[in-house]
Structure formats: structure tokens, C-alpha cells
Amino acid sequence: MREKSSATAPTPVTATRVAGLGLGALGVLAFSMSLPATRVAVQELDPWFVAFGRAVGAALLAWAYLRLTGAPRPTRDQWRRLAVVALGVVVGFPLFTSLALTTRTSAHSAVVITVLPALTAVSAVLRAGERPPLPFWVASAGGLTAVLAFLATSGTVRGELSAADLFLLAAVVLCGLGYAEGGALARELGGARTICWALLLSVPVTLPITLVAARAHPPGPDAAAWTAFGYLTVISMFLGFFAWYAGLARGGVARVGQLQLAQPVLTLIWSALLLGETVTPASIGAAVVVLACVVLIQRTRASAADRRTPDEVHRLPDQQVPRPDTEKAPNR
Questions:
Q1: Most buried residue among 159, 211, 220, 331 by CB atoms closer than 10 A?
Q2: pLDDT tens across 195-204, in order?
Q3: Is 26 domain-assigned?
Q4: Is 321 among the domain residues?
């Protein structure tokens, strides 16, 4: 009777999920500055140089990290999945946001990014072969419709989508795919190694384009632009993913993915405070509608998962619990 009850003691699974939420929050904080930093960088630097140059710089850091930790090479199947990660978060999102932010403000772009958690959840559902209820798909369609309505009525010429808006939509679709695949793959490779191998896999593409862009439009000495470029390289493209993918691996794509709800709000705040951009009532209204849709998406998906048997839950990529040594380097 004197033994302490274990009912309130945190289980390993609970502790892992709490750690996942904490790491995910750090990732969201890091990513929330990406759009404002990109906006500053592309005002003086070529957008292609910004998009691919930061990936090259981050790849150098990734190479050093993998060498120091003695990381084993991925398997053939893991290389294939890393290609999806690279397409989404190393190439797709940086390129299309850089192109969009040459003409669009980061505040405007942040509203479009609100649909990213929904697309991440949809990508995870499709990858896992889940069958969520009808409200999941209705909420997903509702969030996308709200974003499209905002874009069509937010000052574009004659109510038509501009090329910049199409770039933003392409960015979030590819990023959602990269987040979902990377979060699942991080259980096998670890969060840090997932982004590091994806960066190195992208070098044959990112390095030549960076060199061509630098030659075509030599970057100037603007201090603000280079500071923003440095942030994008070290934080947005490298360290932020250490935390984000590790969080997704420990806490689950669906659960930790909800933290993305805070990202557009933080981006709107940074845009107003650091860049002096105007956050319109329409922007706030659209963001609230999309966030409400994302909350419904996550709730309906969680309810569907709760109705599964233990064996079915175990098979879901975003419900597995990583081994404690996921992030540890192998013994040499």
C-alpha cells in the first residue's frame, strides 16, 4: 500500500509525445520567420539564388553533421522517400515562396500558408491508407476554398489569381507532402539525418542552379539581405528541421502537425513588427476560417484513429513510437 501509484506517472509513450510537442514548437517558431526573411532577401538577391543557395549552404552543414556522427547511408527505399522530402521542402517550397515574395508581402503569403497543416494531414492520410470520415474531407475542401476565396478577392487584378498566388499554392502542396513523408521517415533515420540526407541528395540540382543564378545576377553587398539569407540557410533550412522532423517522429504527424496552427499567426506578427506590413481584416478573417477548418480536420482524424484496433493503429506511420535511440549515432 505504501508503493506510489503509477497512474499519474508519465509513461515512456507520454514522455515521448511531450518531447515531440516541444521539438515541434521549436520548429514552428523557426519556420515562422521564413517568409519575412525571404521577403527581405529577395528584394536585393535573385529569388533563384535565395531558394537554391540556402539549400547549398545548408547541405555543407549537413555533410559536416553526417561525418561527425558517422551516420550510415540510407537504404534504397529510404533514398526514394528522401527524394520526396527533397522535392517538397528543399526545392519546392523555397523556390515557389521566393518567386512569390518578389511581389507579394509576407503577411499576404502567411494567410495562404494557413492551409499547410490541412495539406500535411491529407498527405499523411493518403500515405497511411487511412479512411477518414466525410467531415475530414469537407473541412479539407473548406480550408482550401477559404484560401482561394481570399486570393481571388485580395487585390488581384480583376479577381484573378496572380502568378505569385499560384506559386504560393504550389509551395504549400509540395511542403505538405514533404512534411508528411519526412515525419514518417524520421522514425527510421532520425529528424536530423532525414533533412541532412535530403539536402545532400539535392546538391546535384541546387548547386548548378545557384552558380548560374549568381553568375546571371551577381549578389550585391546588402547587409539586410545577406542576414536574411543566413537565417534561411542555418535556421529555416537546417536547424529548424532538426527540431521539426524529430517532433513529428516522436509525437506523430497528426498530433504535432496541429502546432502549425500557430505558424501563420506568428508570421503575421513578424511581418507587422519587423517589416511594417499591414495586416488587413480580410487577412485575419481568412486565417481564422482556415484555422477552424484545420482544427476540424485534426479532430475528425483523431476520432477515426481512436476507433481503430491496436494492430491497425500500429501500422499507421504517424502513430508509431520511435525507438529511444532514434537520434543516436551508431557505434563505430
A1: 211
A2: 999 999 999 9
A3: yes
A4: no
